[in-house]
Amino acid sequence: MGRDKALVRLCGRTLLERAVQAVRRAGGAPLIVGARRPAAGVEDVRWEDESDGTGERAGPLPALRHGLTSCGTRVAVALACDLPLVPAALLRFMAAEANGHDAVVPRAAGEMQVLAAAYTVACLPAMTRHLASGSGSVHGFLGAVDCRILEGDELRRFGGEEMFLNVNTPDDLARAGSILAAQGP
Predict the structure, then answer these.
(1) Phi, psi at 35, each rounded to 5°
(2) What is the pLDDT of residues 6-32, one digit of tens each?
(3) What residue ranges define each of the domains in the chain, with the CATH number in brackets?
């Protein structure tokens, strides 16, 4: 998109505001892992800067590990701000399902949606080992944990695979806006 996606506006709110609202509607306490963005329009949210003040980001897996370590709960739900169509009901369902698994990850169109998933602290050792091996892929540690995969009919009841539209281009943003407009308020 050529700019900070967290600050991109969709139907009057930033993508980050939408993610925070989805987590709150799911019953969670939002924790934003990354650099503080005063212009993002979010208040009363806990921020954690995984760069330790250096400003250098190591990628999604270190950020995910940092958030899981910092959240203070056994289960954390990850939601990337560029996935604005993921409903709170799915986040709530994944958090509940994580009580019986180490991770709960949707699979849509053959892709694991690792940044719209639930993780428990039981994943931390596997994440740490995976990072120590030199790999930063979020997908890479999932084979070492009890991962429940949601797909097909389980996803359809929450809106289907379309909810994982990743906003990476102006066309994606326009499509997400059309989908939200069709859904109504």
Answers:
(1) -70, 140
(2) 899 999 999 999 999 999 999 999 998
(3) 5-183 (3.90.550.10)
